[in-house]
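Sample 3 of the quickstart, ligand magnesium ion:
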Amino acid sequence: MAKTKTAFFCQNCGTQSPKWQGQCSACKQWNTIVEEVVTREDKKPWHGDSSEKQKRTKPVRLAEIDGGEQFRMNLIDKELNRVLGGGLVPGSLTLLGGEPGIGKSTLLLQASLQLPFKTLYVSGEESKRQIKMRANRLRTGDDNCFVLTETKTQSIFNHIESLKPDVVVIDSIQTLHSEYIESNPGSISQIRECTAELIKFAKETQTPVLLIGHITKDGNIAGPKILEHMVDTVLQFEGDRNHVYRILRTNKNRFGSTNEIGIYEMQGSGLRQVNNPSEILISNTDPSLSGNSIAATIEGARPLMIEVQALVSSAVYGTPQRSATGYNAKRLNMILAVLEKRAGFRLAAKDVFLNITGGVSVDDTAIDLAVIAAILSSDTDIAVNRKYCFAGEIGLSGEIRAVQRVDQRIMEAEKLGYDTIYISKSNKVSAQPKNLKVEQVSKIEGLTNALFG
Ligand code: TYD
Ligand code: MG
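Result:
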């Protein structure tokens, strides 16, 4: 039986050293030495890696490989199923990242409670009592969910061997520690080793594992980037903690597209799936108020109508303030420069505040046209008709550029009862909506003439 041995390796140049040191003696980089397992004890199936046991593989003609539909476990939660590409794939490792308090534990505990399979919820962060209290709030009582409060991987695997769950949830990967490595839980070596053990376990027993991961201040999943390379799927749970809406995104998916998003609303009794997001993201404000407009955006593969609010006022201080919530501040500055230079609006001495309502943040550049409409509406104090919506990107010379999947946006706008959609002249439209007028504009002036006369 091989005994577990570890050694220290530089993450930059790969040099091995007998003990930890602050600086690598070969490449002189600081803080790059990390402990790794070299050989391990051959105790459990997913620990053993000795070569005589490994199945020999040989090249196979692609045509001879069985390419049938991948079986997927139905997670009941429709949004989660969609984001995963149709359900949970047996033997897969899924990582769920998100800021503290955003609802990661709630999401996975809720999913575990709904599942018709035997699930094991391993928590290294909360006590059994805390988990029970949370489960009571969720009010989806179920006998198939087992809870384990443990952080040592070896004993987690022992429990798994006797319980034989169909799905394992780990909350969180940063609290686990493997006794083969001496460093603290949450360190790079520990995260890497624990993930490697979980991957072996998942692949060999075909049990899917869901991992919760913390994220750092700059929004990346804490720990080595390699963690994201190791797992099959990376999900990101995001939203503004002061708002009730949460968006679940796929950053990586080996079994499906990364274009899907799931939307939830955080309620007193857990997360509610939001099936028609467009309706909730638009507030019912007074139609005579200026500074509001509606963008027909696409998030992932779903069309979403989003409300944009702008406030333009004379600057009190010498340097005007520009601030954007849910929208890229640099892009706002660019739009203001284009409006000033290409369309002759005097905005240089004005404060401009922009807000995307509902606490969502938008990457889709098709929102530009709605941003312009909202800014100019606030500046001129003329309200934009609430039955109008916009989808167009703005270029540096003031031209309105075509956006992707315009037909899908048009159909969504018609479905939600809008009168008119403004898009770029260069967009080719094949959809023929009956109750919606499609206005195509090529320049900012075209838009301002139509909106503000
Ligand atoms: P949590 O799932 O613990 O977040 P994470 O695991 O990502 O750190 O919970 C996040 C917040 O959600 C918490 O502040 C309380 C709130 N919450 C509700 O509003 N309703 C609920 O039913 C539950 C369980 C939590
Ligand atoms: Mg948690």
